[in-house]
Design a protein that fits this description.
- The complex is a heterodimer.
- Chain A is of the alpha/beta class.
- Helix content of chain A is about 35%, strand content about 25%.
- Chain A contains 18 helices and 20 strands.
- Chain B has a single domain, classed as ABC transporter involved in vitamin B12 uptake, BtuC.
- The longest helix of chain B has 29 residues.
- The N and C termini of chain B lie close together (about 5 Å).
- Chain B is mainly alpha-helical.
- Classes of the chains: A alpha/beta, B mainly alpha.
- Chains A and B meet through α10 and α11 of A and α1 and α9 of B.
């Protein structure tokens, strides 16, 4: 059987970087082939070559046994290669059908659009995918998961036989992931070859047939997904074995209280939430997407202040009406969306680390003491092991894990001793994840009080000394560390109506 | 794009603007023997001073990702305020200058408050301010100019020459000296101070700055107020040159200043820009006006050429960024 797509000894160089070193990859019709590797391993570059965005410097692209060149994305689409981007590229104010057929709208005479055919054709695609979707719905009003399905439909509308999916589940909850997988399995039986990029191990096991691992721009190997243990895949990715440790829970009975939250409420999003956090403790927050965990974090941090309730820091009541108030009280927040809420991407590492503490390093005229900041930035780069050519590097050029460390450095420099981490490892590769975990544990040992919000249960279990679970804006329970996944899921799905019965 | 390339890119744009300036100067010098004369160069510089000061002030606002359309009429309003203080109240010169700058700072603070607190888009807030200030200038003066005949030394602020007193061969007008001093101070503020750092940070990612616990509203208001007080300086320069505060003047100056900023390579989407670039941009505009006039090109055509230059400058910047990607 000839492979649907074969990439043979592909080479790609960028100025100063050898991005792909003789990488080969094969995709058969009717398989889900996972492509794994740490950030910077070259997965995206390889996929950009396959979708016509980049041109290879060497090697062959073979589709259906014939060597082809893909000078533009359009050529790739014509050959049936479609890509669903990690960041959705949809026009929010247009309808589902308008998005799918953008640039290829069916026309009537005088340049009039054939809206009826547009909608009918879109409906036909969704029918073939076996999902219900109104082609006339405005995309911006759909959930992220539904938007993703529009993206998939768009890719399929090119009669794609190859579908590239870059981290499709990053923003989906479990039910939505299950729905996505149903669609992928169906596409697989129809002979579509799917290249699936993800960092989530459990998903790889659930959905993929084969796994190809890349590291540092080179091909490491291809294994059968069902028979290969996760630890082996991870060790292929990082070049070393990772042990999956459990959280070691310290005795905090004598530790002083850091944060007390009482009866915090805001509209329908947060309903009467109370909990406490001690110095040196890591409190995990589990729950499904939309349970209100991020909203809680933003309320405590003053980004969207609560309407009622009390917050005490180190025993003293504080009024938090803005992030500036929270920071003054020693609370730092690390958003799930670093690029939008955590970093000034176009500015350098030093400026970002200093962002919350600038006035402290300036004299009466407001002159910044750059020499002192440079020294401090370099200290944090060493301490947190931030991989960057220097403190003058723009942060947008760093990998996700290193960007996260820059945000951590920002709050450490500001002397924040209560740190709220919202999805601290989202978009961060496996090796860097372990490093972030170690860092959080160390921070707790130093006496910082830490809240970790995570949608990945293994992450919550691995880090937390206690686990708070939310559902629909309520805190449904606090479990001791090491609780079982079943206990957590039970609380995470304990809906108000059911609880009342 | 690597960091080195990014740096190279920004330097490249400044270089491009500077090279265009040199090409213009050489071209006009070859075309007319009257162009490259000390007197003419001085008059070009003098003609740049008002637009240059306005452009330097609005550069800060534009780096935050905002815009200030009211600077032209605000300049006039500030001139009117100093005229009232000096001519009507007969107070000392220095108080007139301070009152003009304070009026500008107050106007900037109002715009800044509307933008930061009331969340009105900068374009709209300052468009409104532009009209409000134009109207106020006319109301306060009863639509008649205020003359500074009774204030000794007022015309010297712009037209005297401290440097000429020391160095008679090169009587650089004080107006130009003031432009250079303002530019140097703003360049220093932008590159060395907390205010400057937050100016770039606001333009780069305002929400991230707010979530760092920075009181972004206050800083933004401060930046608009500072830009306003620089407008006050421009108001004093122009009224000193005309020896009067002309209440009907001002509209149109904001667009010339913004054009100078853009030609100088500052991005209208914020986060990027330099004072040096803005200075070069302002010089390009006045060299063009002066040179075309010397070549007896009709003023209508001068306007057309200026428009083409603005579009060409931004197009060159776009091309550069596209090739860098």
């Amino acid at each position: 059987m000839t492979a649907l797509v074969k990439l043979d000894t592909i080479e790609k160089r960028f100025p100063g970087v050898h991005a792909l070193k003789s990488v080969s990859f094969e995709l058969n019709a009717g398989e889900v082939h996972a492509l794994m590797g740490e950030n910077g391993a070259g997965k995206s570059t390889l996929m950009k070559i396959l979708s016509g965005v980049y041109q290879p410097d060497g090697g062959k692209i073979i589709v259906d046994g014939l060597e082809v060149s893909l000078p533009t994305p359009r050529t790739a689409q014509a050959l049936g290669i479609g890509i669903v981007h990690q960041e959705l590229a949809l026009m929010r104010d247009l309808t589902v059908a308008q998005n799918i057929w953008i640039g290829r709208e069916p026309r009537l005479s005088f340049g009039r659009l054939d809206e009826a055919k547009l909608n009918a054709d879109a409906a036909a695609i969704f029918e073939s995918m076996n999902i219900r979707m109104d082609p006339r719905a405005i995309v911006g009003e759909l959930t992220i998961a539904r938007q993703q399905m529009v993206e998939i439909a768009k890719a399929l509308s090119y009669r794609s036989r190859v579908l590239i999916m870059d981290e499709p589940t990053a923003a989906l909850n479990d039910a939505e992931i299950a729905e996505l997988f149903t669609i992928l399995r169906q596409l697989r039986t129809e002979g579509v070859g799917i290249i699936y990029i993800s960092h989530k191990m459990d998903e790889i096991k659930r959905i993929s047939d084969r796994v190809t691992v890349m590291r540092d721009g080179a091909y490491v190997g291809t294994v059968n997904a069902a028979e290969t243990p996760i630890s082996q895949i991870i060790s292929m990715m990082v070049g070393r074995e990772l042990t999956d440790e459990q959280a070691r829970i310290p005795d905090l009975s004598a530790a002083p209280m850091a944060l007390e939250v009482e009866h915090l409420s805001r509209g329908h999003e947060l309903k009467d939430i109370s909990f406490t956090l001690k110095q040196g403790e890591i409190l995990g927050f589990a729950g499904l997407m939309g349970a209100g965990r991020t909203e809680l974090a933003r309320a405590i941090f003053g980004a969207e202040p609560a309407q009622s309730g009390e917050i005490r820091v180190h025993g003293k009541p504080v009024q938090i009406g803005s992030p500036a108030d929270a920071v003054k009280a020693g609370i730092g927040y690390l958003s799930e969306d670093r690029k939008h809420f955590g970093l000034a991407l176009g500015m350098d590492v030093r400026a970002n680390i200093a962002m919350a503490s600038l006035p402290r390093y300036a004299d009466k005229l407001g002159r910044i003491n750059e020499a002192a900041l440079a020294r401090i930035a370099r200290d944090y780069i060493d301490m947190l092991n931030i991989r960057t050519p220097g403190d003058a590097q723009e942060v947008r050029l760093l990998s996700g894990g290193n960007q996260q460390k820059v945000v951590i450095a920002k709050w450490l420099l500001r002397d924040c001793d209560i740190l709220i981490f919202d999805e601290p490892t989202r978009g961060i590769d496996v090796g860097a994840k372990a490093e972030i975990y170690r860092l959080l544990t160390e921070l707790a040992l130093q006496g910082k009080a830490i809240i970790v919000i995570s949608s990945e249960l293994p992450e919550v279990l691995r880090l937390s000394h206690r686990i708070a679970v939310m559902c629909e804006g309520r805190l449904t329970g606090i479990l001791p560390g090491g609780a079982s996944q079943e206990e957590i899921m039970a609380l995470a799905t304990e809906r108000e109506a059911l609880a009342a019965e | 794009m690597s960091e080195k390339e990014a740096r190279k890119g920004s330097a490249h744009q400044k270089l491009l603007a500077f090279a265009s300036l040199i090409v213009l100067v050489i071209g006009f010098s070859l075309a007319s023997p009257n162009f490259f004369q000390v007197d003419n160069i001085l008059s070009i510089l003098q003609a740049t001073s008002v637009n240059g000061v306005l452009a330097v002030g609005v550069t800060m606002v534009i780096i935050t990702g905002g815009i200030d359309l009211s600077i032209g009429t605000m300049m006039t309003f500030c001139a009117v305020v100093s005229g009232m203080v000096l001519t009507w109240l007969g107070l000392p010169l220095i108080l007139g200058v301070i009152a003009g700058m304070a009026a500008g700072a107050a106007c900037g603070l109002v715009s800044g408050t509307l933008i930061a607190k009331a969340k009105i888009p900068p374009f709209i807030a300052t468009l409104g301010m532009m009209l409000v200030l134009k109207g106020l200038s006319l109301i306060l003066t009863g639509t008649k100019p205020i003359y500074f005949n009774n204030t000794d030394g007022y015309t010297d602020i712009s037209q005297g020459s401290l440097i000429g007193d020391l160095l008679p061969v090169f009587p650089l007008p004080n107006g130009v000296l003031i432009l250079f001093i303002v530019a140097a101070i703003v360049a220093w503020v932008l590159s060395r101070t907390v205010l400057g750092r937050y100016t770039f940070a606001l333009g780069s990612n305002e929400e991230a700055v707010r979530l760092s616990g920075v009181n972004t509203d206050a800083w933004k208001m401060g930046i608009y107020a500072l830009a306003g007080s620089i407008c006050g300086i421009a108001g004093i320069l122009i009224s000193s040159r005309l020896n009067s505060a002309q209440p009907a003047l001002g509209l149109g100056y904001e667009l010339e200043a913004i054009a100078a900023v853009v030609i100088g390579g500052t991005s209208l989407s914020g986060g990027r820009g330099t004072v040096l670039g803005t200075l070069i941009g302002a010089l390009i505009m006045s060299v063009l006006t002066n040179g075309l006039r010397i070549l007896s090109v009709a003023p209508e055509w001068q306007t057309v050429v200026t428009g083409v230059i603005i579009i060409a400058a931004v197009y060159a910047d776009q091309m550069r960024r596209r090739s860098a990607r």
